Amino acid sequence: MTQTMENQSSSAKELAMLGQIKSILLKDDRAEIDAIKKTLYRKEELAKEVSPIVEERVQYIKDNFRKEFGKPVDRIVEIKLEESKEQLLNVIYPVLGQMIRKFVNYQFQLLKDRIDSQVSSVFSSRGILGQIKSKIFGISSSDMVLSDLDKPIIEEVYVIQRDSGLLLGSFSRKVTVDKDMIAGMLTAIKSFVEDAFQREKQELELIEYGNYKILIQNFFSYYVSVAVSGSLSTKERDMISEKLLEFAENKMPDNLQLIDTELQNQISEGLEAFFNKDIFED
Amino acid sequence: MVSTKVMLTGSFGVGKTSLFKQFLFSEFSERYLTTIGVKVDKKVIEVDDDQLNILLWDVAGEVSLDKVPHSYFLKSSGIIYVFDLTRPLTYKNMISDIEYIENKVPGVKVKIVGNKKDLLTEEQLEEVKSKLPIPADIFTSAKTGENVELLFMSLARKILGKEE
User: Fold this and answer.
1) Domains in chain B: boundaries
2) Residue B136: exposure state from Cβ atoms within 10 A (0-12, 13-18, ≥19)
3) Domain range A85-275, CATH class
4) Do residue A178 and residue B5 have CB atoms under 8 angstroms apart?
5) Judging by DSSP bridges, how do beta strands A167-172 and A206-209 pair with one another?
6) What pLDDT sits at residue A135?
7) CA of B28: which chain A residue's CA is closest?
8) pLDDT of A147
9) Residue A171 CB-density burial (10 A; 0-12 exposed, 13-18 middle, 19+ buried)
10) Quick one: which of A278, A277, A271 has its CA closest to A171?
11) Contacts of A243 (CB under 8 A, 6+ apart)
């Protein structure tokens, strides 16, 4: 019994000694673990350690972005551009048209001014009479000649998807035959003419019958057809073109993939707001 | 209601325009077909709860499809290729014609239609079927109206994605 008690007491002593040795040997390791824990568990401490590494990595990515990610990013942009090409062009088309039109108009105005100055120097009886009238009414000689003709009226406007000939929207002053079918037949005629003559990048822009003119303004994925009665001067034709570009820029939706009643109503309302008035008054 | 373009094509005299007439009441004169080679009409079809506004382009028959202005094919959602069951010449080029169409309008839904079914007995029809380069989707008679409505309904369902 005494022997057993002695054994127990010695093993307890050994354990205590072992514990002391352990704490001495592992002192440094424990301190290190405590420091790591402190760093990991406290946000600010962790930030201090990690931030430089992250910043260095970010800087590396900034400096080497093209090398590391150039190809996949280019591919993504390429795909995105391809997918939204039609929408993009629908937006750009009218803006480019406006710029070109403004430039051409300016050049024509210069030419017209030169012609007016020529006309004013002619001393024929008609010229003198014209000049008197011109002075009285305060309008140019060339515009006076045109003012004698019938005033144009926009009777109908159709916005039609290219190729399919599906009607996107319309405005009409009177009841006509089915507008969907007019849009389809106009497209068929347009396609036929363009195919038959095969003039690359040239498109049908005008159809005339009697006192009616059908002006066609082409955009990227659709075209607008305007039926006008009465006489149409170049200036008035320009005004229609200008108005159509303005309409395309402000009222036409970019996405024309799904042609449903909602889209058609939206475009038709836009046309009504733009063309159910005398656009030649301005 | 969604609008869509469907084109009717095939050789001269296969009965395209008669199918067209069976399907809808035409407002435009047939003269357009001979002057510019195409005539456009429309019909609204109800499929389940959806409405489809079909603009149907009837193209004047040509011996070869490449004689049809290529722009007529563009942006079609569906194409009905018609041949005459009584004239082998009208389905002889079927494979190249279908390839031509699929090349012009990738992804388009095509229905191959054997017309003038009323002129054949059941046995004769079976014999013609065995000789076709590609199996037809449907056999119609523009004269009696047999399967005409079914053809357009089935195409409409295909366009709306309600049928394979």
Assistant:
1) 2-159
2) buried
3) alpha beta
4) no
5) unpaired
6) 64
7) A181
8) 52
9) buried
10) A271
11) A274, A275, A279
Span between the terminal Cα atoms of chain B, in Å: 21
pLDDT of A139: 58
Segment A113-132 shows an average pLDDT of: 63
Work out how many CB contacts closer than 8 A connect A with B: 73
Q: Are B65 and B58 in contact (CB under 8 A)?
A: no
What count of Cα atoms within 13 Å lies in the side-chain half-sphere of residue A22? Answer: 6
Q: Residues of chain B whose pLDDT is less than 70?
A: 25-35, 62-63
Taking an 8 Å cut-off on Cβ atoms, the answer to whether B40 and A166 are in contact is no
> If you ran DSSP here, which 8-state letter would residue B67 be given?
G
* Contact yes or no for B42 and A180 at CB 8 A: yes
Number of H helices, E strands in chain A: 9, 5
Residue range(s) in chain A whose domain bears CATH number 3.30.450.70: 85-275
Cβ contacts (< 8 Å) between A165 and chain B: which residues? Answer: 5, 40, 55, 57
Q: CA of B62, closest CA in chain A: separation in Å? A: 15
* Tokens 């009607």 found at: A167
CATH class of B2-159: alpha beta
Integer Cα distance of B98 and B107 in angstroms = 12
Do the Cβ atoms of B72 and A188 come within 8 Å? yes
Question: How far, rounded to the nearest angstrom, does the alpha carbon of residue B114 sit from its chain's CA centroid?
Answer: 9
Question: Which among B2, B37, B75 has the least Cβ separation from residue A258?
Answer: B2
| Mutation choice for A interface testing from B34, B55, B58, B108 by most A CBs within 10 A | B55
Question: Chain-wide mean pLDDT for chain A?
Answer: 80
DSSP 8-class letter at B161: T
d(CA A160, CA A187): 8
Q: What is the ipTM of this complex?
A: 0.81
Residue type, B1: M
pLDDT at position A226, please?
93
d(CA A219, CA A263): 17
C-beta atoms of B55 and A196 within 8 A: no
pLDDT at B64: 73
Residue A47 clears pLDDT 70, i.e. is over it: yes
pLDDT > 80? residue A173: yes
Query: Which of these, B33, B44, B63, B46, lies nearest to B6 by C-alpha position?
Result: B44
Rounded to a whole number, what is the distance in angstroms from the first to the last CA of chain A?
A: 124
CB-CB under 8 Å, A261 with B42: no
Closest partner residue to B69 (CB to CB) among A177, A192, A258 is: A192
CA separation for the pair B99, B86 (Å, rounded): 23
Per-residue pLDDT at B138: 94
